[in-house]
Amino acid sequence: MKLPGPDHPITITANPKRVRVSAGGVVIADTTHALTLKEASYPAVQYVPREDANMALLARTERTTHCPYKGDANYFSINANGKSIENSIWTYETPFPAMAEIAGHLAFYPDKVTIEEVA
């Protein structure tokens, strides 16, 4: 486990905007409680609370990855409009203590879904 610091900063802040995630015209998540995670020089990622996502459209996959800063990630595919978008969502169900805020949240690959921020 590594801790964020000056060489690899990670910040988590509440997003004041509404965040809507859709795939093929189907809304997957819609929230006013997203968290914006900024990590080093990577693009910001919106983490959406699970309770604001349509979990009936999601299917857990076998894929897992490890981040030395956040912990082990699990993945979901989206099943909407008769199509499956494989491993399009990741989640840290038991993140490392420094990243505890993102537990219970989902993050979406922006090249696989549409993520809109609405004022």
Write the layout of secondary structure elements.
Layout lengths: L9 E5 L3 E6 L2 E6 L3 E5 L5 E5 L8 E10 L3 E10 L2 E9 L13 E4 L5 E5 L1
Antiparallel strand pairs: 1-4, 2-3, 2-10, 4-5, 5-9, 6-7, 7-8, 8-9
Organism: Bradyrhizobium lablabi
Protein name: DUF427 domain-containing protein
Description:
Residues 19-111 form the DUF427 domain. It comes from Bradyrhizobium lablabi. With 119 residues, the protein is mostly beta strands. The protein has one domain (10-118): Metal Binding Protein, Guanine Nucleotide Exchange Factor, Chain A (Beta Complex), CATH 2.170.150. 0% of the residues lie in helices and 55% in strands. It is built from no helices and ten strands. The strands form two sheets. Strands 1-4-5-9-8-7-6 form a seven-stranded antiparallel beta sheet, with no helix packed on it. The radius of gyration is 14 Å and the shape is globular. The mean pLDDT is 97.
